[in-house]
Design goal:
Belongs to the D-isomer specific 2-hydroxyacid dehydrogenase family. The chain is of the alpha/beta class and 343 residues long. Helix content is 36%, strand content 13%.
Amino acid sequence: MPKIVYLDAFPADNALDILKPHAPGLEVVRIGRDQPLEDSFAALADAHAYQCVPARDEVPEPLRIHREFLARAPELLVVSSGGSGVDTFDIDACTEAGVLVVNQAGGNAEAVAEHALGMMLMLLKKAPQSDRALRRGWNGARVEFRGADLLGKTVGIIGLGHVGARMAEICRSAFRCEVLACDPYIARADFAERNAVQADFEEVLTRADIVTVHTPLTPETRGMLNAEAFARMKPGALFVTTARGSIHDEAALAEALESGRLGGAGLDVWDTEPPAADHPLLGFDNVIATPHTAGVTRDSRERMAEYAATQLIGLMAGGDPARPVNPEVLPRYRARFREILGG
């Protein structure tokens, strides 16, 4: 019988409801982050699928998917991320072991795009500055907080996947923005379909009034937004990221804000999550900060749980993955599937 083990950090209420009708043919086991590791690995020793989450602060290091973990789960066929990110997964180790990695890309795209849009609007309207001034007892002239409209601005999108494409659609359709996007993994013909004009990284930085980041964290993107990149942005431009911490250099961003080079920043992701209360970026009045909550809405959590459950049900029945992260592993994965589960 196929066995699915899921980590308690995964929002699984409706996922379990979806799995219930398949219960006679599936064993579903929950492990807790706070329970003894030996108990967790006892459950994982004969598991065929492991449902994890991508947020680094929510998964104890031993329960992240790496070579040591895989060695202790020899029958594992599939590891599934609760979102689109795979920060807690060693993809190379999974591929070497013949383990398929899947995610739930697109499940929280609306939530993340709306969050990024909200940050953009609030920064343009100088809402963080006015909010903090009022809390300090401000009694001045309203013109001190004169902002700007989003209408007609140039928005630069780095990463035109599910979230980036939704951002482009909103900005172009609702606010008549010029939308520039860079993404080396999107075919040239697809940019127009995704409501954006293809541009290189340099052009996005130098032309955009607002730069918003929607890429995964990879060796290629780590530290991509560094001091040199911030120096190339338009004076007074806004920087927003709801992607992953470590794609932008936090010290370099703080310096760009301190110097007045940038007009403000909206930050949902951090090198260390949550950031310390004395983090330098939290000291700026023109910074909106949230603790990696862009994708954490009731609607998105239900959607991602549904995506995860239905994908695992299909895979355990011998079907093809809907959202594979390492598709190159499929031939070996299928051979291991036949060997371990038959059919």
